[in-house]
Specification:
The structure is a single chain. The chain has helices at residues 35-58, 62-75, 78-89, 94-110, 115-118, 120-136, 158-165, 182-189, 199-202, 226-229, 260-265, 276-279, 289-303, 338-342, 346-359, 375-391, 394-401, 412-417, 432-442, 450-461, 480-488, 498-501, and strands at residues 2-5, 7-8, 13-20, 149-153, 169-174, 193-196, 210-214, 219-222, 249-254, 270-275, 307-311, 364-369, 405-409, 427-431, 470-473, 493-497. It contains 22 helices and 16 strands. The protein is of the alpha/beta class. α1 (35-58) crosses α6. The chain has 3 domains: 2-23 and 141-229, Glucose Oxidase, domain 1 (3-Layer(bba) Sandwich); 35-136, Enzyme I, Chain A, domain 2; 242-501, TIM Barrel (Alpha-Beta Barrel), CATH 3.20.20.
């Protein structure tokens, strides 16, 4: 058994035999049909593709329906139709016109200011390929494989993810992909493991090889040994078989509102992290105070009397909502993200803080600041909360004064400085995803390096940290061995996806 590193996009674990997806090369054959005939053929292809997408929507869950609706809109887009008609009027074949349309609009999308917008290139690719297949009357093949298989390709289009899930696929293995792509959203929804690995690693795999995609440990295992074979295809967490200490307290992560009902019905201690940016990611307009208040109050009310920790908008680098794409008030600066970037627009931060303060009237909430690098950002938020209290009704002032304010520690510099922030902070959250990512970039060391653990230990042992709560979220909060080490050091609160806490034996 050999384990290779990868990047898990769905954090699920699945096994199956390797199956390579072979895509047919596009060929362009000159046609003698008239412009009107080409136009009619294109219209029929659009109608056929939209009809197929519509049929898929009938049996799909809401998340999948939303993605299929995006592709339906793309297929019937007026600009796409006008571009194709212009090219065929100039003498191009339909296939050539569609290929050029793809290149043209891909370039436009690529010029977008956020990674979210750029990820829509894959959706456009998917739609264009579907239109071409429809024109060529070349449907994608069905696989007659009785056992679960791992599909392998350079990338996966959303329509392929849906089709493969219906054909007994257990997982997807690719050389490119993104957490924000619709393919990843669908893979999560359809319970498929999805992993990205380097291209040379794909070349080590033969058709039919047994593979294990270990989403928890970000590993691809080729030819898993017999002990690993005992893991069922429905097991999502290998390490769930390991006992974790009974002292551990697990809190849930909420990414989208669709998860709220299940979390509220679960036995989790509360919500330790609400990624608020994802709640409004697809909004076309900036969410105003009323819109935000309604969402936050819904979450706080559903979880009462359990506590909910709302992280303020965490944008920066390549993460940006649609409503921020063209806003000059939030500058693109490679060295800024999280609360520092958000504070470039004080009104945006104050609006969110007002909405969160109003949510405090419906439940027990905490506010968490992302990627903090200096005490000035914390002090600025404290000042804004005082301003909001001063402007609020008398009964609101007491709620606002009782809202705990926390800070995420997500970089080496934050580990070094955070003890000095204690006078302005009610609790800390150790963001291990970014800490590990920065370790690999800066130190090129393995995950969980001794240097990183030494830094964390030094922080915990700092006298200034003795009386302030410290929580752990991210990858290390999901690993039983790491949990045991943290508990030995006095840390007992762990924030993880809610579906995982029930699988950890205590």
């Amino acid at each position: 058994m050999i384990a290779y590193p990868g990047i898990s996009l769905t954090n699920l674990t699945r096994k199956g035999q390797a199956h390579f997806i072979q895509r047919k090369a596009l060929t362009f054959i000159e046609s003698t049909v008239s412009f009107e005939e080409k136009r009619a053929i294109f219209a029929c292809a659009v109608a056929r593709v939209q009809s197929e997408l519509s049929q898929q929507m009938h049996s799909a869950n809401p998340e999948t329906q939303a993605i299929l609706a995006v592709e339906m809109a793309m297929a019937g887009d007026l600009l796409l139709r006008e571009f194709v008609e212009k090219k065929i009027s100039e003498g191009m074949t339909l296939l050539e016109a569609l290929s050029q349309a793809n290149t043209h609009f891909q370039a436009s999308i690529n010029a977008g200011s956020s990674d979210y917008i750029r990820e829509r290139k894959q959706d456009l690719d998917d739609v264009i390929c579907s239109l071409i297949c429809s024109i060529k009357e070349a449907p994608e093949p069905d696989f007659e494989i009785s056992d679960p298989f791992i599909a392998i390709a350079d990338q996966f289009y959303p329509s392929e993810v849906i089709r493969l899930s219906h054909q007994n696929a257990a997982g997807l293995l690719a050389t490119s992909g993104s957490l924000m792509s619709h393919s990843t959203v669908l893979a999560n929804s359809l319970k498929l493991a999805y992993m990205i690995v380097d291209k040379p690693l794909i070349q080590k795999i033969q058709e039919g090889d047994q593979l294990l995609l270990d989403g928890e440990h970000h590993q691809l295992i080729i030819h898993p040994n017999p002990s690993t074979d005992k893991i069922s295809f429905t097991d999502t967490h290998i390490y769930a078989k390991i006992n974790v200490p009974s002292q551990a307290s697990f809190w849930a992560v909420l990414n989208i509102l669709d998860e709220l009902e299940d979390i509220a019905l679960s036995t989790t201690n509360g919500i330790g992290l609400v990624r608020t940016e994802y709640l409004f990611y697809d909004d076309l307009l900036i969410p105003d105070e009323n819109r935000q208040t309604e969402v936050y109050q819904t979450i706080a009310r559903a979880m009462y009397p359990r506590s909910v920790t709302f992280r303020t908008f965490d944008f920066g680098f390549d993460k940006k909502a649609r409503w921020l794409c063209d806003r000059e008030e939030i500058p693109e600066q490679n060295k800024k993200r999280g609360i520092s970037l958000a504070l470039a627009n004080i009104s945006l931060v104050k609006t969110q803080l007002k909405a969160l303060c109003l949510a405090a009237s419906r439940g027990n909430i905490r506010i968490l600041l992302p990627y903090v690098q200096n005490k000035k950002a914390i002090q600025t938020v404290r000042r804004l909360l005082k301003e909001i209290a001063k402007e609020s009704k008398e009964e609101m002032k007491e709620w606002i004064s009782k809202i705990p304010l926390g800070v995420m520690i997500e970089s080496r510099s934050a580990i070094q400085r955070s003890a000095a922030w204690v006078p302005w902070v009610d609790f800390f959250s150790l963001g291990t995803n970014d800490l590990l990512r920065n370790e690999r970039i800066d130190q090129k060391e393995k995950i969980g390096s001794t240097l990183l653990w030494n830094r964390i230990y030094s922080l915990i042992q700092d006298e200034r940290m003795k009386n302030i709560p410290l929580e752990v979220c991210g990858i290390l909060a999901e690993n039983p061995k790491a949990i045991t080490r943290f508990i030995d050091w006095g840390i007992k609160t762990f924030v993880i996806p809610w579906t995982k806490s029930s699988k950890l034996k205590r």
